[in-house]
Amino acid sequence: MTDNIYLPTMMKIAAARDEAPDVRTFRLEFADPAERAAFFEKYRVGMFGLYGLPGAGESTFCVASPPTRTEYIECTFRRTGHVTGTLQDREVGQAITFRGPYGNCFPIEDWKKRNLVFVAGGIALPPVRSVIWNILDRRAEFGDVTIVYGTRTVADLVYKHELEEWAARGDVRLVTTVDPGGETPDWKGKIGFVPTVLEEAAPSSANAVAIVCGPPIMIKFTLPVLSKQGFAPADIYTTLENRMKCGIGKCGRCNVGKFYVCKDGPVFTLAQLKDMPAGDM
Amino acid sequence: MKLLDTKKLAELASALKAKGWRVVAPIADGDCVRLKEWAAGAVLRLDEVPVNSAKEFLLPRSEVLARYRIEGNDFASEPVAPEAVKTVVLGARPCDAASLAALDTVFNWDYKDVFYNAHRAAVTLVTLACTSAMADDQCFCTSVGGSPDSTRGADAILRPAGGGAKLIFEPLTDKGHALAADAGPALADGEAKADRIADVPVRFSSEAVTEWLKSNFESPLWKDVALACLGCGACAYACPTCHCFDIQDEGSRKESVRYRNWDSCGLALFTLHASGHNPRPDQSSRWRQRVMHKFSYFPDRFGMLGCTGCGRCARLCPAGMAIAEVCEAIERASKVPVK
After folding, report:
1. Among A10, A94, A209, B271, which residue is least crowded by beta carbons within 10 Å?
2. CATH architecture of the domain with residue range A9-102
3. Chain B: nearest CA to A37, how far in angstroms?
4. Which residues pair with B158 in a beta bridge?
5. A108-239, what's its fold?
């Protein structure tokens, strides 16, 4: 049966990198070139995949690399439970399973010439990072790029080398911050929570779109700041991270109200979120 | 018209089995009646609504979705086909058949689920119109758009006649006619008048419930209704429309069998994130989901209720909870004027 969507494909770990305590990035290559072609035919930034191992099961996380880079995909995830733990124990050269891409995407084709403000917290930079690289790989098509990224401690910052790369670029404004007490003696970034630092950074909302991703508490306090700065609900995007099993709008696990996060999302605007039961997210 | 002596139901089952059908029927199982595979000697009982629904013959409790292996650089999978044998569910209830609309929709609204559809194609559903001797106080099909003799979703219907001594066999679809062709002499030509169907009172207005739910996500009612709930999930397993499932992989790091298992939004682990965050952290939020999904989200998204009024959840609940009572309470709440 070739149309069995529940059967995963195989990916080889081409490279691995420790990003932060318990956070690791895999660069994955499709074992089958036809699968790679099929993937990139569908893949748009914001979509997710189900990564797994035989006998362990699957975990859902975003594709952290942009569709502009078609030789591989990357995923960055924290060792949290059984599946993510066994996945992190895999080494370069070994294989894992994959299903995807699933879900909707950030409508970046509608964002051409607009200014982009990215706000991310902690382990939520990966889903935003794919958008950032997608934009930077097509830099001339978009307006100003501002990135506000915060973690609890300096050690928790993911993609440290890429943060340096973005900071060094003349066409990106990067503001990094750590929670009070999370700084090191040589920390050059801000000290403070993301919503406060965002307010100080005061990116203009003129012709701008905001992309926010982070823990629920950060989102909760960041949205009012963005609203105060003049971002309309339809111009604020986030990506929901509900527990999923099937990824294809059947198993019911990711339901929030009448929405299937796996099909109607994971990308939603604040305008859409306002129609969804907040107590179910 | 085609008639069958109720006493000859086993003869019909036997004839169909001889023609290669897997026959599922309401069978005495301890002190309850269960839809299960018929074998010679099984005692058929039409007097009670079976504890389980016909769902499990369309969406098995546990089903293999994939078998695959990773050996070094090689990925291999064995073809997996659903075990969809030609099956007749003989004597399901109209509330079972009514659930097909919901199940068909979920499993086909986007990706068309090959496993579900294979079972669906293989199953012929013959329902039994409910007379008062066959229904009970937990039945509330008439409150959710159904009726004790509804033909919706069925391939054929058996209508009791002569005080239950006879059954009128009325084919409704090609599948129903095909079954009749294999029925043998147990099904004979004759004339009879169908018995009066069960009087199932309308207990609540589903429109009023749906309307109230739109603006009462935060109602204190959820805390009250959920107090007795043990979170066992039996209601979802008994439900003909509940379809939420889990996917589990079993095996070694090299070989895996992927299963689809029934799951329930009433279970605490259903939505628990690995981080520890649970969008539905308590039983009241899970009960709210159960009611909201059936009476608000499902109608909103797919234009139909997610409840067929079979009452199985209430008959089985160890804490004596009943979704119809919750709906009655909601309708009462909807009539309280807003200050």
Report:
1. A94
2. Beta Barrel (2.40)
3. 18
4. B128, B169
5. Rossmann fold (3.40.50)
